[in-house]
Amino acid sequence: MTHAILILGAAMAADGRPGPALIRRARHGAALWADMPGALVVASGGGGEAAAIAAICVDAGVPEARIVQETRSRNTAENIAFSAPLLAARGIGRVTLVTDYYHLPRARLLARRAGLRVVPAAPRHGIGRPHRHAWLVLREAAALLLALSGRRRP
Q1: pLDDT tens digit string along 90-133?
Q2: Are 42 and 88 in contact (CB under 8 A)?
Q3: Where is each DUF218 domain found (predicted)?
Q4: Is residue 16 within 8 Å of 48, Cβ to Cβ?
Q5: What does CATH list as the number for 3-127?
Q6: Cα–Cα distance between 152 and 143 in angstroms, integer?
Q7: What is the pTM of this model?
């Protein structure tokens, strides 16, 4: 196995259920796996995110044996930092990186810095409420600038 699908976690609802971004990412990752069933799926995210991603993927037909959970990360930098050794231990350096389109530039930068060869993959995403979309894009732009500067996001 030389390829993995790395699905980055996203916020969980206050009641512990997966939020819309997490569901969207997990479903997209599972659909990608259906086209490359030899790939390993890495579900990345602490606070129940990895388990939720794994459950959604299993429900979509990904065998549990093809899923590895990274359960310690609390942010994008940790998603990548904690997933990279799991991948390296399996001899995997090439990943399809699954996250939302507005999040891809920063996630891709961090993954490349961790030595991963990245194929970006974002699920289709309706714009939704314009102010929410604008907020997400602006937040990610600021976080990308911090990542480029080498400073950590709070």
Answers
A1: 999 999 999 998 889 989 999 999 999 999 999 987 656 666 55
A2: no
A3: 4-134
A4: yes
A5: 3.40.50.620
A6: 9
A7: 0.86
